[in-house]
């Protein structure tokens, strides 16, 4: 039979009295905890009762001490010793009461059945590298309405101040204020990524946004398009088919189709008299003396690396100044693609300490926020592997993922489950290597010669955190003296056709790229300049007040 609500306070206080007196049993303590969990309205009364006992215990302790003399005695007297048994009872009671306060605080952090969650009034640094400067705070909670939310990750937390990461709203509404001046109101259920002070990503759900302050445009990415807000108020939603719906309530919204070209493409086909450079942005490449131009695997040029410390190509930092900045700062996806002839001079045993046996294909070393693609052989790999695999030679793809930390997808070169063997990767032939991460699906994957060889799935909406001041490098790891071009993980062999994308190539595109290189053509079938010009000349769509539009998930084009 259910106990009457009228006797609950009395029962709780009786149990609290037993707790503070140190005579409560385990069964009674469990009953007390259950009552306070099921009836949070009585917690404050419970806590007041505990503090009363703390005060009484302190007074009892003071009563056992000798009274202070009004004046110092003229003759020194031996102080009276208080028997330990008189001090023990109040001290014990004080200790038990403090434990009771601990119980109260633990119950306060327990999940609530209804209403807004208790939030941590602190920065959300729970998944960042303690040894590096974390990304800046980008947003904070402005208001809530019967809302529950958490940061996505392996240790979900609730907070009201956010660094880059993904918020999962499971009930109610939450209003966020971005430090760049935009206000965003999320309606549950929604999955929303906070990329920067002026940029967010709606993975699923519905939001309303407008700019209340600031001049910089707020960019909102969806699976279909990128929306640019310059003071406009609009609604946007993403359905289960990943289609994007936009309704402009005031002003104008600029709609930009997502680009399909890489951010960088290094084909090394420049003439001998010309400097090496990125074929898209024309950014200069600086080469160490043991990175030598040779005949191309595809096209006229490639680079041979001879496993010497100064076998390296320095690519620059893409304008990065801190974590989350620069052209190598990606969030919802990334692809590293290359043609490789490996001559990896692997040791017969796994090194137990540094320097480990690595051959770097691509690496941007920003501490734990690094991006890497390399051949590896070390016994310490299990520390950062997701999933964990047996030791031995592998092809490693490392990223820092929000809420998850830094980890590497290490593909063993063992010939099992469709994976290539070490001998196959060192057979003297060129191999098409592609590493991708797709935040829209959570899939991290490695492809060899057009085929998926290994993958792992993280929670949908898990974003990459990358970028910063350190230069990116092809063929080595350089961490300090960049001007010397000297690194400690040099490549051995030939590298060509390296591309860096800010999204994940899909399996069909990867297979098509492999067919191209098999036929002796580059990934873009010799039409790169045409595609670059088309993207530069592409006009963004403007939606005016009152307009509604739906955009295809596959093409980003309007669906009429």
Automatic annotation (TrEMBL):
InterPro entries: ConA-like_dom_sf, FecR, Ferrdict_sens_TM. Keywords: Membrane, Transmembrane, Transmembrane helix. Signal peptide: none annotated. The chain crosses the membrane at residues 86-107. Pfam families: FecR (PF04773), Laminin_G_3 (PF13385). The keyword Transmembrane applies. Residues 172-254 form the FecR protein domain. This is FecR protein. The lineage of its organism: Bacteria, Pseudomonadati, Planctomycetota, Planctomycetia, Planctomycetales.
């Amino acid at each position: 039979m259910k106990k009457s609500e009228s006797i609950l306070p009395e029962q709780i206080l009786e149990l609290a009295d037993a707790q503070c007196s140190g005579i409560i049993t385990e069964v009674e303590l469990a009953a007390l905890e259950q009552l306070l969990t099921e009836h949070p309205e009585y917690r404050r009364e419970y806590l007041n009762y505990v503090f009363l006992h703390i005060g009484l215990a302190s007074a009892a302790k003071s009563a056992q001490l000798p009274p202070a003399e009004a004046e110092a005695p003229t003759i020194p007297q031996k102080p009276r010793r208080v028997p330990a048994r008189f001090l023990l009872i109040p001290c014990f009671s004080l200790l038990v009461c403090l434990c009771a306060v601990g119980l109260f605080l633990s119950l306060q952090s327990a999940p609530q059945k209804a209403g807004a969650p208790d939030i941590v009034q602190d920065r959300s640094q729970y998944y960042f590298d303690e040894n590096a400067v974390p990304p800046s705070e980008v947003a904070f909670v402005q208001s809530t309405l019967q809302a529950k939310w958490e940061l996505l990750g392996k240790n979900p937390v609730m907070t009201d101040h956010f660094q880059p990461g993904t918020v999962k709203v499971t009930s109610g509404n939450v209003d966020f204020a971005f430090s760049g001046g935009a206000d965003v109101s999320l309606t549950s259920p929604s999955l929303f990524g906070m990329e920067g002070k002026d940029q967010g990503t709606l993975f699923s759900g519905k939001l309303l946004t407008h700019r209340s302050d600031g001049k910089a445009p707020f960019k909102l990415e969806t699976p279909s398009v990128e929306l640019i807000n310059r003071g406009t108020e609009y609604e946007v939603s993403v359905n289960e088919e990943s289609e994007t719906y936009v309704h402009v309530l005031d002003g104008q919204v600029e709609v930009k189709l997502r680009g399909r070209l890489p951010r960088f493409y290094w084909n090394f086909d420049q003439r001998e008299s010309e400097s090496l450079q990125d074929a898209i942005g024309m950014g200069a490449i600086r080469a160490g003396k043991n990175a030598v131009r040779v005949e191309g695997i595809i096209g006229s040029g490639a680079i041979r690396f001879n496993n010497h410390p100064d076998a390296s190509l320095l690519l620059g930092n893409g304008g990065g100044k801190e974590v989350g900045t620069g052209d190598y700062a990606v969030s919802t996806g990334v692809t590293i693609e290359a043609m490789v002839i490996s001559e990896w001079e692997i040791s017969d045993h796994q090194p137990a300490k540094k320097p480990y046996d690595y051959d770097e294909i691509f690496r941007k070393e920003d501490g734990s926020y690094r991006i890497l693609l390399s051949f590896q052989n070390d016994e310490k790999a299990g520390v950062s592997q997701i999933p964990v695999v047996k030791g031995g030679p592998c092809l490693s793809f490392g990223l820092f993922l929000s809420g998850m930390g830094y980890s590497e997808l290490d593909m063993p070169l063992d010939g099992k489950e469709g994976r290539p063997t070490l001998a196959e990767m060192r057979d003297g032939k060129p191999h098409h290597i592609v590493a991708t991460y797709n935040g829209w699906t959570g899939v991290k994957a490695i492809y060899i010669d057009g085929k998926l060889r290994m993958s792992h799935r993280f929670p949908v909406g898990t974003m990459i955190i990358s970028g910063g001041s350190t230069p990116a490098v092809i063929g080595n790891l350089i961490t300090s003296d960049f001007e010397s071009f000297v690194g400690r993980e040099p490549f051995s062999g030939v590298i060509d056709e390296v591309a860096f994308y800010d999204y994940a190539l899909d399996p069909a595109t990867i297979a098509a790229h492999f067919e191209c290189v098999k036929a002796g053509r580059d990934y873009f079938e010799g039409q790169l300049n045409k595609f670059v010009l088309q993207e530069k000349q592409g006009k963004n769509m403007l939606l005016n007040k009152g307009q509604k539009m739906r955009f295809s998930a596959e093409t980003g084009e309007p669906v009429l």
